[in-house]
Amino acid sequence: MFEAASLATAPSPVTARALPPEGELEAIVPQQPGTLRDTGLERPLVLALLAKTIARVGKTHLHVLGGKLRLSMSVLREALALMMTEQLVEVARRGDSDIDIEYQLTGPGQTFAAAALAQCRYVGPAPVTLDALREVIARDARRHAGAARIGDAALAAALCDGPGDDIIDAAVRAQLGAALHSGRALLLHGASGCGKSTLARKLGRLLQGVVGVPYAVLIDQQIVQFYDPLVHLAPSPLQSRQFDERRNDSRWLVCQRPVVHVGAELTREMLDCRFDAANGVYYAPPHFQASGGLLIVDDLGLQRCDAGELLNRFMGPLEHGVDVLSLQGGHVETVPFAVTAVFTTSCAPHALMDAALLRRIAYKIHLGPLGAASYLALLRRQCGLQQVPYDAAAAAHLLQNLHAPSGQPMLASLPRELVARIVDAAGFAGVAPRLCAASLDHAWRTLFACCPPLGAASAAADQVLLGEKA
In terms of Cα–Cα distance, which of 372, 412, 409 is closest to 392? Predict the structure, then answer.
């Protein structure tokens, strides 16, 4: 996370740290509320959620309502008692025990539920307050204040997928380590295909520990859905033990630290809460969902809005640790901005931003072509992943007869693309894929839409490629 006025001691979550001890559970999410007052929510909101839920599912038991609204039994009993007093709900069937009771809406209750649905069709876990979210994020910052930093060995391991994948130059790795240690904004720039996006995603592997994520948050009396199962992934079984439904507020989940990736589709409008008119509910913007994790803004300069304008939108939150979100009707609210931000671009940084923006993005790291040894190591690894026998003579042909005459730089993306095309062609022809001069020539032409200078022995390359049966 970024150092900020509101989170002055907050380090980056890119740290190496053991799991918190069992007694530290409440540092992740709040305690289970025992009363309506403890939820932080106003009574009409909770009663409306209850009425809408019963209207949706029909006659229902207390434990079903608890699973739907993620509220404790004591809170639900208190709320249902109020609804019974106001003749909005009644007991439909009473069993042998206190928990074997079915509730249903009365006539006035059905009217009440219909009015609530007309105002907001959200039916789901009760939201948490924005103050509660602020406190959880602040606790997360304090929990990592004394954490050990990632060293060079751990960084190198995180950037490798296996043997032969150590392609990041030591000098570049040192720059990355310094940037991550600072917790400040990082810009990866270089030619398309040099591995910027892949590297940015690999940085997410360095995120340690877990983070508390609410299903929904109440902002200016509006329910904003926060949890996204594609972003907020379940933690390991060991980490899951840090959440106890008997003690911890069930409106929260314990998740892996999120890695949110946005690219050329990003617009200024996406950086505010998105209103779903059909359901009368808001959705949290991607950078807000990334709280406590990593935000990757890919392909900077390809968005429909100006790159400088987009970066300026992020600079204040990055520097101060807070953002301002807009809701319908002109309402605005200040929310925490606690992310590690990585930008990538294939453009020259000076062409995208002025001197002030260049200064405010603390680290600009250039990624270029690979050296021959790293390039061939990556080719060998791709062959292994796609079960294509590696051939050193074919690899030499790739460097000497394809790269050298064309001047095509040895970019990190090319081995994967070339081997994939060899597999595609062999699969269509019904032959075993082979790394050879003919298959590489064929793959090269389909990749670059050109005819590279081939030797006489390769004049019938396609015939040879498609005629060698397994």
Answer: 372
Please check whether residue 397 is in contact with residue 453, taking contact to mean a CB–CB distance below 8 angstroms: no
**For the chain, how many structural domains are there in total?**
3
Residues 439, 391 contacting (CB under 8 angstroms): no
Whole-prediction pTM: 0.84
Query: What does the pLDDT look like over 52-68, one tens digit per residue?
Result: 999 999 999 999 999 99
The two structure tokens encoding residue 36: 């309506």
Strands (E) across 112-205 are located at 128-129, 148-149, 186-189
pLDDT at residue 454 tops 70 = no
**Same domain membership, residue 415 and residue 325:** no
Distinct helix (H) and strand (E) counts, the chain:
19, 19
- Report the distance separating Cα 448 and Cα 430, nearest Å: 24
86: tokens are 């106001």
- Based on the fold, state whether residues 67 and 213 are members of the same structural domain: no
Cβ–Cβ < 8 Å for 180, 425: no
What is the per-residue pLDDT across 395-427, written as a single tens digit (0 to 9) for each?
Answer: 999 999 999 999 999 999 999 999 999 999 999
Mark whether 81 and 206 lie in a shared domain.
no
- 3-state secondary structure at position 455: coil
Token representation of residue 149? 């930093």
